[in-house]
Amino acid sequence: MVESVTSFVEAVGYAGIAVLMLLEILLPVIQSEIVMTFAGFTARAGELSLPAAVAAGVAGSQAGSMALYAACRRLPEQRVRGFVADHGTWLGFTRDNLRSAEERFQRHDASAVLIGRLLPGLRAFIAVPAGLVGMRAWRFFAFNLFGTAFWVSVLAGLGYLLGSQYRLVDRYSTYVTVAFASLVVALVAWRVVQVRRARAQT
User: Fold this and answer.
1) 27: exposed, middle or buried (C-beta count within 10 Å: 0-12, 13-18, 19+)?
2) I need a surface site. Which of 84, 91, 108, 143 has the fewest CB within 10 A?
3) Element (H, E) at 108
4) Residue 57, class by beta-carbon neighbours within 10 Å (0-12 exposed, 13-18 middle, 19+ buried)?
5) Computed over its alpha carbons, how large is the radius of gyration of the chain?
6) Which residues, in sequence order, are CB contacts of 10 under 8 Å at separation 6+?
7) 118, 101 Cβ separation under 8 angstroms
8) Looking at 5-14, 35-44, 113-122, 171-180, which range is the least confident one?
9) pLDDT tens profile 114-130
10) 67, 101, 185, 188, 198 from 191: Cα distances, Å
11) Which long-range contacts (CB under 8 A, 24 or more apart) does 178-186 make?
């Protein structure tokens, strides 16, 4: 799969990055870690522009997420849940994942999108619970775009820095994900504390 992804990016360039990142939302065998780190490596070799590669990755992933979000908003809820129950296992998104994600959305939908974009098993399918709980389209678009841009930029940047060793990111992707998810959680917690202190002083 790695060879297929890298060959496609080499052959098609920015459009290939966008298409693969869009397909990642629907096909779990395609991983953003592979696509974007290779894009970063290719940019370091001078064959692509790093900002343009990041933009292509963000555009493709955002388009796929919005399409999935729209489908989950418009299709009958039981049909969506039935599909997850029947096919979620091989897609990497189970009923337990969905239940957990919906609980997070009911408490704090914005941070759920941001953090969800960093978590394996939820990253590609964050649009499903967002659509089911009826999160407003503009909110999902904005927060998903922010989370996507952050994750894609990190991956492409790591690929650029590591050069020919870019595959190390895929090998240690779990650790990378945990590290950045922890950072986001810490920043959200810090912000909550700051807001509460400010309110207490008024």
Assistant:
1) middle
2) 108
3) helix 95-116
4) buried
5) 17
6) 16, 42, 47
7) no
8) 171-180
9) 777 777 667 778 888 88
10) 31, 22, 10, 5, 11
11) 180/118, 180/150, 180/151, 180/154, 181/115, 181/118, 181/119, 184/111, 184/114, 184/115, 184/118, 185/115
Dihedral sign for Cα atoms in the order 121, 112, 65, 184: negative
* Residue in the structure block whose two tokens are 């780190």: 37
Instruction: Give the chain's domain count.
Output: 1
Using CB atoms within 10 Å of the CB of residue 17, give its burial: 0 to 12 exposed, 13 to 18 middle, 19+ buried. buried
Assess contact for 98 and 129: CB atoms under 8 A. yes
Q: Residue 121 and residue 94: Cα distance in Å, rounded?
A: 8
**What pTM was estimated for this model as a whole?**
0.79
Distance CA 62, CA 141 (A): 8
Q: Give the domain range for residue 21.
A: 2-201
For residues 151 and 118, is the Cβ–Cβ distance under 8 A? yes
What tokens does 112 get? Answer: 């759920």
